[in-house]
Structures are given as C-alpha cells and as structure tokens.
Amino acid sequence: HSFPGSLDWTVSDRYLSLPTDKTLATYISIDATGQNVRCKTGTLSCHPSSVSDLPQWSFDGSSTSQAQGHDSDVLLKPVNFYRDPFFLVCINLYN
C-alpha cells in the first residue's frame, strides 16, 4: 500500500538525474518594514567558493517601498552565503 505522501521513485529519479553543474542561489534580505524577509533566486553557472564569486543583482525597489519611484534601482550585494542544503546568500541593499 502507498499513502498520499509516499515518494514516487520515477519522479525522484527524474530530479536526481538533473545536471549538477549549476547552482540555484537564493538572495535573502529584510524588507523596508524590517519585519519581513524578501528573496530573489537565480541560476548560477558555477559553484561559488567565496562571496566575490557571486554576482550583484538589482531590482525595482519602488514596488516594495525600498526606493522612490524616480530612483528605484536597488542593488543586491552579497555579503555571505550558506549551503544549507540550498545556496542561501545574505545581501545588503543599496539605493
């Protein structure tokens, strides 16, 4: 008998056979209220070994109240990272 939460090995095998030459990096920050977490995930073509290997990203901060509409680009700058089991990147935000 199987139960609804049982693992279907055909599905599992499909994901286990995916290429491992890329890294999903989740950039994490605290939002403008100081009470919520925001994140942005991207695919990296390498396995970073130091913070300097991580790219800086940007986003439109006006939609999250982290920047004014006339100057809304917010830079995401990595300051640390953890492999747990996903690749978590702590960032600072710069406007």
Automatic annotation (TrEMBL):
Signal peptide: none annotated. PROSITE patterns: GLNA_1. GO terms for biological process: glutamine biosynthetic process. One of its GO terms (cellular component) is cytoplasm. GO terms for molecular function: glutamine synthetase activity. InterPro entries: Gln_synt_N_sf (IPR036651), Gln_synth_N_conserv_site (IPR027302), Glutamine_Synthetase (IPR050292). This is Glutamine synthetase. It comes from Geodia barretti.
